[in-house]
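@channel sequence for tomorrow's demo:
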Amino acid sequence: MTELELNMPQPDDPMLIQSESKANGDPVGTMFGKNRKIPPGAQSCLNWSKKNLLLLMTIAAVALALLLGFTIRLVEPSAKAVKLIKFPGDLLIRALKMLIIPLVVSSLISGVNCSKLHCKVLKLLLASIFFKKIVYM
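structure tokens (generated this afternoon):
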């Protein structure tokens, strides 16, 4: 046997889980040498979780972060530890602000430009600037 064949699982390996199909099309799994029928609900749940793995991992990360945050709050960390924990979060919020604000402004500009109302919006914008100059002088 070559090295590649030694590393491949053998069909008689008890830890091997295979998905096969019977003559009627029902999926059958072999686990620890026992044939067991996979229920259709479990199969559809497994297929859904494979398709939505990113969603499940995001929900798990949020749950873990909440658990960790509430646990750390119970410990009452020092001011230095709070600053160290707060710093990456502040950087993330500032980076999001730098990214989101220009996107929102450019979306508004392109939306106004695509609509036929750009003359009316321009008049409204000039009126609001003029009003602010008069009020705040």
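heads up for whoever presents: DSSP finds five helices and three strands in the chain.
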